[in-house]
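Researcher: Go.
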Amino acid sequence: MLDDFMIRAALAGMGVALAAAPLGSFVVWRRMAYFGDATAHAAILGVALSLALQVSLFAGVMTAALVMALAVTMLAGRGFAMDTLLGVLAHSALAFGLVAVSFLSGIRIDLMSYLFGDILAVSHTDLMVIWGGAFLVIGLISWRWTGLLTSTLSEELAYASGFDPRRERLILTIALAITVAVAIKVVGVLLIAAMLIIPAAAARPLSRTPEQMVIIAAAIGSISAVVGLQAAYSLDSPAGPSMVCVAAILFSLTSLVKTIRRI
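Model: Structure:
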């Protein structure tokens, strides 16, 4: 069954959608869209690191993403506006990563596959890494669900309830780094943030509870992956961008539903 590359690609897309759904919901609730983008851009530095040290791509990308996320967390509020800080770090990390990759001698690398993903080349090993990372993210979010949700609503309420918002933020940061590491093969550095944010944003108008939003976001992300792959196969278009296009169309539809309900 898994010998069919389209089935492997669909399973990989669904795995990323399941990992991105709960995390993307928190990114939307906390208004951390640029934070996710900066973490994703750092992944190119991780690619260069993993190739230079001959370690696994997952380990290199996760390390770079985690370092970037922690750096943003520590530097926030120290004389720079958050959007300025994220803009500087995101684009600097991407540029330094691309330059670092160009200096790797004797290694042939397809930068387009890392920038926009190469989901059709997903192997059995990649599939295990993606689903392993997805289950790890879901486990982390489920374990700290109450604390994460409470600290998202109010830090004062979190302290009063016995939760440390800084610890919850760290757990969210770790989950984000894992998601970036598993998603780079599927949608690439430039589109990871889109798969985090768009399905969650599309689910918001249809949800009445946080749990509903996560479930609907996972469904929208999975539908975007499968339909986007089919569209890419039929239209001979890039698979990763096609998935994001489908997610954007679904976002437009749910936004239209929300507008109609208000009339």
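Model: The CA atoms of residues 254 and 260 lie 10 Å apart.
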